[in-house]
Design brief:
heterodimer, A: alpha/beta, GMP Synthetase, Chain A, domain 3, 2 domains, 3 helices, B: mainly alpha, two-stranded antiparallel sheet, 12 helices, 1% strand, PaaD-like (chain A), MIP18-like (chain A), Zn_ribbon_PaaD (chain A)
Chain lengths: 163, 273
């Protein structure tokens, strides 16, 4: 019973750990937290990396450890990155999608049958956009341009096991 | 056949040897090609390419890190030491991937050849895609999971290099001539990329990956299709002009690269960066 309460407290605490570059979105909302296990006074958190070469992974890991240590509930805190299941962009929560948009980054679109994708402008909502560069300033983002409000913007790249 | 854990993999000495041989090839290939790619930073033909190429190199280095991690898990040593601390003779990357981008260095008069880079990266990425698809059915479960992850990121890499290849092969001016010369230069070493090395037969017998013959066949098919699209014919004669990297044959280019890329690591191997 106490263990279940503690697991809930860990989930709540992880809402405070944000993406180091997007301070409106938590690692929970990004779908990076796969499992939290509490045994006696030990907690193990299994996380999914978005992109493997992402240099923020170590920072995120440290931030998660710090946040959980601050709870002062556990004697031992372990954080692992695992590859199975793979992270996919549809793991981002509804709340996460809203927060991304607030930050000015379009949430990841869904791929259609042909593998094509389309993103609306996160600023003005226009659908009149063009893809400028699939590869953006970080591995998980692409660069687009809105012909409606004439702003460049970023979108989270769609990532799926169907690729 | 399914080997789920390190302990199971270690029970059969022949399986362990084949598995580690394959992992070293996959890791060393991605590691050195990511390094060669990173040398283009700031020098790519235009700024959008600079952004895209560095992102691809970062992903690719991430893939190498995952393979080195699997080797560390299997007891082969610390992954940073595996990546930075091994001598050229102990490395099993294909020779093609270690070759310099052109004359000069990053700092002094870099005369890098973009045609050569496009062809080398496109061909390598296509071969890697075929291997990774096969690895999704590997008998070693942790490798299978890594393959699923790599494959999703690779989708965008392949799309990127296919686009460059098609555009330059069908462009006017000197582009086509330079692409043809680059294709010849890449193919004379390309057998080294497709090779599974001295343990190739065992690697396939243990169902770690498809046979070298199957991989070669699929590669030739993909290339034939692409070459038709650009109205050229794929010259299927591939070689290993500078030796077989899978056997530890390497060029001076690799020594020089290791000296540069491991400089910071070697200054203090115990430091955490």
């Amino acid at each position: 019973m106490q263990e279940e309460v503690n697991i809930m407290k860990v989930w709540d605490a992880l809402q405070q750990v944000k993406d180091p570059e997007i301070d409106s979105v938590s690692v929970v909302d990004l779908g990076m937290v796969e499992a939290i296990d509490v045994k006696n006074q030990e907690v193990t958190i299994q996380m999914l990396p978005t992109f493997m070469g992402c240099p923020a992974l170590e920072i995120i890991k440290k931030n998660v450890e710090n946040e959980i240590n601050n709870l002062a509930l556990f004697k031992k805190v372990q954080v692992y990155f695992i590859y199975q299941p793979p992270w996919t962009s549809d793991r981002i929560t509804a709340q996460g999608r809203i927060h991304l948009q607030d930050f000015g980054i379009a949430p990841p679109p869904t791929l259609d049958d042909s593998g094509e994708w389309h993103v609306d402008c996160p600023y003005c909502g226009s659908t009149y956009t063009t893809l400028d560069n699939i590869f953006g300033p970080t591995a998980c983002r692409s660069i687009l341009y809105c012909k409606g409000c004439k702003n460049p913007f970023e979108a989270m790249k769609p990532i799926s096991t169907m690729m | 056949m399914n080997i789920a854990t390190v302990e199971e993999a270690k029970k059969d000495a022949s399986y362990y040897k084949a598995l580690t041989a394959l992992l070293y090839q996959l890791a060393d290939d991605d590691f050195i090609i990511a390094y060669r790619g990173s040398e283009w930073l700031g020098l790519a033909p235009h700024i959008e390419e600079d952004v895209a190429f560095s992102s691809i190199n970062q992903d690719t280095m991430g893939h190498a890190a995952m393979y080195y991690q699997l080797l560390e898990d299997l007891g082969e040593g610390d992954m940073d030491a595996l990546a930075h601390g091994r001598k050229a003779a102990d490395r099993v990357n294909a020779v093609l991937l270690e070759k310099v981008n052109g004359s000069g260095t990053y700092l002094t008069e870099p005369k890098y050849d973009w045609a050569y880079t496009v062809v080398r990266h496109y061909f390598y990425t296509q071969a890697k895609k075929i291997k990774v698809e096969a690895l999704k059915n590997s008998s070693y479960e942790p490798l299978k999971h890594v393959a699923v992850k790599v494959n999703m990121e690779l989708y965008y890499h392949l799309l990127h290099w296919r686009t460059w290849f098609r555009q330059l092969c069908t462009a006017n001016g000197e582009a086509k001539t330079r692409m043809k010369a680059a294709i010849d230069r890449v193919l004379e070493e390309f057998d080294g990329v497709l090779s599974l090395g001295p343990s190739g037969v065992q690697i396939t017998q243990h169902q770690l990956i498809d046979s070298e013959g199957d991989i070669r066949l699929r590669f030739t098919e993909e290339m034939t299709n692409m070459f038709e699209k650009v109205e050229m014919s794929f010259p299927a004669n591939m070689g290993m002009k500078s030796g077989n990297g899978r056997k530890g044959d390497h060029t001076k280019d690799l020594d020089d690269a290791l000296l540069t890329l491991s400089e910071v690591y070697n200054s203090n191997p115990a430091a955490v960066w």
